[in-house]
Amino acid sequence: MYLQLKQDIFDFRLFPGDRFSETGIAQHYGVSRTPMRDALFRLLREGYLEVGFRRGWKVSNIDFERLDQLYDLRIVLELAAIERVTSGSNHRAIDALKAIWRVPRDARETDPARMFRLDEGFHRGLVEAAGNTEMLRVHNEVTERIRIVRRLDFLKPHRTEATYDEHATMLTLIERGKLAEAGIMLRAHVTQSKLEVRKITVSMLAQARDSKLPFVS
User: Fold this and answer.
1) Which residue ranges form the domains of the chain, and what is each CATH number?
2) pLDDT tens across 191-208, in order?
3) pTM higher than 0.85, yes or no?
4) Distance between CA 71 and CA 186 in Å, rounded?
5) Which parts of the sequence belong to the HTH gntR-type domain (predicted)?
6) Which among 186, 73, 178 is positioned nearest to 135, based on CA atoms?
């Protein structure tokens, strides 16, 4: 139940600001209130939901200031990862990324949902190649927190094209041992993504909404 609710929030079927009751949402999903309440309070602890006395549940509004901070943390983690990509085994991991991102233009992904998953995989792959499991754990947590808006970055085709080009260039620089240059490009790349997220408006979020569920107000 928890995973279904979180996915509905990520897919904007449960939209920022939507209000609902425990009874209404439990009836909609066809479950009892006990497992539903467990899922709701878990999402409350993670910051995706709010609850108020006699006001029921509410999907939290997107906190863009917090997202800015998470993107900045991503930059720190990924820069540190690039500095550690030196061993032969790490370069095998880089080769796997090259197979995805160094492809002809007509072979590039165009679907925004699949594209954002590929993008997540690229940046996770960089950190994984560093061989530091704790760094990877923190990076995975950051990735989870920004996922709700990350896919919106790829609604515009030019962002997809830029991502392919920049990822391929970063991999080339890493392969040639030009880690400082790769780090400069990575910082610019993630910063631009952060700026694109900042441009997301309520109307853009509304366009991304799949459909309004019947139990929300």
Assistant:
1) 2-61 (1.10.10.10), 64-200 (1.20.120.530)
2) 998 888 777 765 666 666
3) no
4) 12
5) 1-62
6) 73
